[in-house]
From TrEMBL:
Any one cellular-component term (Gene Ontology): GINS complex
Domain of life where this protein originates: Eukaryota
Protein name per the record: DNA replication complex GINS protein SLD5
Keywords in alphabetical order: Chromosome, DNA replication, Nucleus
Record domain DNA replication complex GINS protein SLD5 C-terminal: where: 156-214
Compartments where located: Chromosome; Nucleus
Organism: Casuarius casuarius
Family the entry assigns: Belongs to the GINS4/SLD5 family.
Pfam hit, one: Sld5
Underlying gene: Gins4
The keyword Amino-acid biosynthesis belongs to this UniProt entry's keyword annotation: no
Nucleus as UniProt keyword: yes
InterPro entries: GINS_A, GINS_bundle-like_dom_sf, GINS_Sld5, SLD5_C, Sld5_GINS_A
Gene3D superfamilies for the chain: 1.20.58.1030, 3.40.5.60
Amino acid sequence: ADSDGGSEELVLTPAQLIRSLEQAWLNEKFAPELLESKPEIIECVVEQLDHMEANLKRAKKGDLKVSVHHMEIERIRYVLSSYLRCRLVKIEKFFPHVLEKEKSRAEGEPSILSPEEFAFAKEYMANTETYLKNVALKHMPPNLQKVSLLKSVPKPNLDSFVFLRVLERQENILVEPETDEQREYTIDLEEGSQHLIRYKTIAPLVASGAVQLI
C-alpha cells in the first residue's frame, strides 16, 4: 500500500503476471465486446520479457535451460501479440460503439481503451468517414449524403453465449428466459464449475475476475 497517497499498488510475481496476461487474453478472445484495457499488465509483461532476454544473454551457451527459457519467451510473446491483435480487430469491427462508450463513461470508470488504442480508433473512424464521403456519399442526393456510423455498424452481440469457469463462488445470478413462456430465475455458480451462459448475464463477473471465459 502507498502510505502517502493512500492508494494501493498490486504487486505480482512473474508467474502471477503471466497468469493475469493469459486470463486477459482468453477473456478478450471469447468475449463478444471489447473489454477494459489492461495497460499496466502489458507494460509489466514487456518489462519482464526484456529482463528474461537480458538474463539469457548472460547464460552459458549450450545449457538446456536456455532453450527452455527461449521457448517460454516465445510463448509469452505469442500470447501478448494475440491479445493486442484481438483488441485491434474488435476496435476495427465496432469502432463507433467503442468510441461512444468511451465518450459516455462516468468519471472514475475504467477505460476500455489505452491511449494508443483511443488514437487508433479515432483515426480509423475519421478515415472511414472520409472514404465513405469520397467514394459513395458525394454521389448521392443531398438528403442522403449523411450516414450515422453508430446505426450502420453492428453492435457487439451481448446476447451470444460463452463458456466460462467460475473462479469465485457467486450466488443469485439472474438468468433471463429463453422464451416468452419462461420466467426469470436465479442460479448459484460454484467455484470450479463450468457453464454455457448468455454473455450479458455474466459480463460484470468477467470484469471483476470472478469468472474466466474459456
